[in-house]
Specification:
The chain is built from twelve helices and no strands. The protein is an all-alpha fold and 261 residues long. The protein has one domain: Growth Hormone, Chain: A (Up-down Bundle). Helix 3 runs parallel beside helix 5. The chain is globular and about 60 Å long.
């Protein structure tokens, strides 16, 4: 393990902070505006637009939930860095291709792809946790968390301004390009001393579900987080359309206002 005075673990932290900021900002730049983008793809009926908005927002999380255990299984065998690179480059491809979507169905397929190849934040946390000295792990993970928070704040506003000025397609392409650049930085500057997890130390999905059944504190935490996420996400698909309905002039910096809200 690197000493506290050593630089490699700090370099890993700072590089992963930058990459996570880019990834979360990119997702936040895109997701709030999907309901409005659907209208540009030909869905003009407000009811249909709302339904497509809900489907598109949920699709990413559905495929991420289904594939998440697989990426964790592979990380235990081949390392966290390969999983981080797979996720950031996969995100770049999925979001970049959204610029070329010509129908809601194509956009849905790309949202499913985005979730399926995702998991960068989890990979980044695992990579930093294994690199940092035990006595500095709290500092390292706390610092890394600020990348996601900052990305969630800046991403929507920046995406709204760019969408109003350049259009949705340019935002998708800029986001994809930024993710490629972040992935290259991770590939070059992050070093991982990986030791495969022994079979006896691995915890599969069944083990995790067993802990959820047997540990009351874990069940409570899970329930609280689950309900909190429902509360946060239930309005997200329809909020941009609601803001649009309040606009007397739909062309008046609508996307910037959605991003600000």
């Amino acid at each position: 393990m690197e000493s506290d005075q050593g630089t490699p673990w700090r370099r890993t932290l700072y590089v992963m902070w930058l990459a996570e900021f880019v990834a979360v900002s990119g997702i936040s730049m895109v997701m709030p505006f999907l309901p409005l983008y659907v209208q540009e793809l030909g869905v003009t009926d407000p009811g249909q637009a709302q339904r497509w908005a809900g489907i598109l927002v949920a699709a990413n999380f559905a495929s991420a939930t289904a594939l998440g255990p697989l990426w964790g299984w592979l990380a235990d065998r081949y390392g966290r860095k390969p999983m981080a690179l797979r996720a950031i480059f996969g995100l770049a491809v999925a979001i970049g291709l959204m610029a070329f979507a010509r129908s809601p169905g194509q956009l849905l397929a790309l949202r499913l792809l985005q979730g399926a190849v995702g998991g960068f934040v989890s990979a980044a946390v695992a990579l930093v946790a294994t690199a940092a000295p035990k006595e500095r792990m709290g500092y390292a993970l706390g610092t890394l968390q600020t990348a996601a928070t900052t990305g969630h704040v800046i991403g929507p506003l920046f995406g709204g301004v760019l969408s109003d000025r350049l259009g949705y397609s340019h935002v998708f392409l800029i986001t994809g390009g930024a993710c490629v650049l972040a992935g290259l930085i991770v590939a070059v500057f992050v070093r991982e001393n990986f030791r495969p997890v022994a079979a006896a130390e691995r915890h599969g999905l069944r083990d995790n579900l067993a802990m959820l059944r047997t540990l009351p504190a874990l069940r409570t935490t899970f329930a609280v987080m689950f309900l909190t996420q429902i509360g946060l996400m239930v309005v997200q698909p329809v909020l941009p359309l609601f803001v649009q309905s309040l606009e007397a002039d739909a062309s008046g910096l609508l996307r910037t206002k959605v991003g600000l809200i």
